[in-house]
């Protein structure tokens, strides 16, 4: 998000305040119980006033998810752009079930081409995928993964498993998502190292795509 | 589904016809474009008549998903209760995008406790989980998986990856879900065999849970 000056500064500040409050309300109550009225009240606006900043409920939710991504990424994944950083994002999700609910539902709805959030989720997927590929490359550089591995494939599996586990976790909060992702990751790592041993190449960890 | 006799027989036959048509319409058009009107027309009923058999849209969709599960399971997973059988179900899904859409959306919606389909998806999850655990045990018996592996954990990861990949596939039909699931499975298998080599036990493939 680029910050704006002059006549827009006040509007930008209010937008940021609304987002912050919407994040709180959705995290606490879930997307079905987080009413526009409650969000509007907490920021001292009417519902019409709220819709002045975010034209629709869909637009507000997209902004909430984007703000969540930016916050979590800055807190966990950017300082440690490895699989461990990814796991910290997932671990943090267990503290905000409402946002997990919003993500699971909204992303499922948006998988249809004509949904207003379809393009948002496509772009978001590209972003998470690229970050995950970087985590795989970091693991190759450290020797955890062997050099012969399709990093895009591992990234797709990692994101799929994390998405699916969040849905399972909504049905049964006792599921340990982190332990399951660690086992999946360790399996792919082991497989990729064995492959390197069977078919050794130069010592450089150059991915083979 | 138990079949009924006497006065119910005609109703049961009509229900089965409606389900079969609804499966077709949803598979072709997706759940958003599959209107009750079209389903009703194709089976020669009014919309009110349709609702006589299925009290609500949610109830009809639950029945559609149940019928899909029964059909696919009988065609692919029951004859081969292994991971290969599971993969055939996923492979078949690529031919019915509308049903994948229905499954992804409806299961996400239903993750909330008070949704009418919540209990249906909890039970469905238990069923798929149990079948997947059996696939892991079959792989242990054949030596593909080592004896020391938490079959429940592998089943959770398998189902999560399959669910997440279906969602990715809705956004990008070029994703090869089967290849990704095979890599994930091979990784967990390799890991479990190594574990068995490091910590050998009796030759019997007894899972350690």
UniProtKB/TrEMBL annotation, chains A, B:
Alphabetical list of Gene3D superfamilies matching this protein: Homeodomain-like, Tetracycline Repressor, domain 2
Domain called HTH tetR-type: residue spans: 12-72
InterPro entries: BetI_C (IPR039538), Homeodomain-like_sf (IPR009057), HTH-type_TetR-like_transc_reg (IPR050109), HTH_TetR (IPR001647), Tet_transcr_reg_TetR-rel_C_sf (IPR036271)
Keywords, comma-separated and alphabetical: DNA-binding, Repressor, Transcription, Transcription regulation
DNA-binding feature ranges: 35-54
Pfam family of the protein (one): TetR_N
PANTHER family: HTH-TYPE TRANSCRIPTIONAL REGULATOR BETI, HTH-TYPE TRANSCRIPTIONAL REGULATOR RUTR
Protein name listed in UniProt: TetR/AcrR family transcriptional regulator
């Amino acid at each position: 998000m680029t910050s704006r000056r002059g006549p827009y500064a006040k509007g930008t500040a209010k937008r940021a305040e609304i987002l912050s409050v919407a994040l709180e309300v959705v995290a606490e109550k879930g997307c079905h119980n987080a009413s526009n009225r409650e969000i509007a009240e907490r920021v001292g606006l009417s519902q019409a006033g709220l819709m002045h900043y975010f034209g629709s409920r869909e637009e507000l939710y997209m902004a909430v998810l984007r703000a969540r991504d930016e916050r979590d990424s800055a807190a966990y994944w950017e300082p440690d752009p490895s699989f461990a950083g990814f796991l910290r994002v997932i671990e943090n999700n267990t503290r905000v079930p409402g946002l997990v609910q919003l993500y699971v539902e909204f992303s499922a709805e948006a998988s249809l081409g004509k949904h207003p959030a379809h393009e948002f989720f496509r772009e978001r997927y590209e972003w998470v995928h690229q970050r995950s590929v970087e985590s795989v490359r970091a693991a190759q550089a450290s020797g955890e993964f062997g050099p012969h591995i399709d990093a895009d494939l591992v990234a797709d599996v990692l994101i799929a498993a994390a998405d699916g586990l969040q849905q399972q976790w909504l049905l049964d909060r006792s599921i340990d998502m982190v332990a399951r992702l660690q086992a999946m990751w360790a399996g792919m790592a082991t497989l990729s190292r064995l492959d390197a041993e069977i078919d050794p190449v130069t010592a450089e960890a150059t991915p083979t795509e």
